[in-house]
Amino acid sequence: MSKTKKAEFRPNDYVVYPAHGVGRIVSIEEQEIAGIRLELFVISFEKDKMTLRVPTAKATEIGMRSLSTPDVVSKAMTTLKGKAKVKRAMWSRRAQEYEQKINSGDLIAIAEVVRDLHRADDQREQSYSERQLYEAALERLTREVAAVSGSDEVAAARQVDEMLVSRAA
User: Fold this and answer.
1) Which of 47, 68, 75, 123 has the fewest CB atoms within 10 Å, i.e. is most exposed?
2) CA diameter of the chain
């Protein structure tokens, strides 16, 4: 097992885990599982009151990554200002695509979901499942924007909202 791969992530680093969004590495520990010694990242997702243990050797393979660069964040913000692209496919098919984008951990893809599902106050109602997906994507985006800019989530949410509202004008 090569020891070089794990050096990318250290305790206290913020990381993005595709299925859960932004978390913080609390520690790196060793555990014996089924007779095999494994080195694990212990990642805390404070918002969800959840702790995840990820084998260090598998972290990059499963898509765990460092926070986006400010450059990627500004691309994501620009994406929000774009025109919503809503395919004519059936909702179940679209919902599946949105879900995949949200869980890809790719900030730009997540921003696309936010953009496509955002509704201005005067637009038609959102279905329950649209709302769920929109909020999940919005939360992922906001948390990462906050973590990258070092601001709190309220400020990040305001920033995201301003982009979405500026588009509607």
Assistant:
1) 123
2) 61
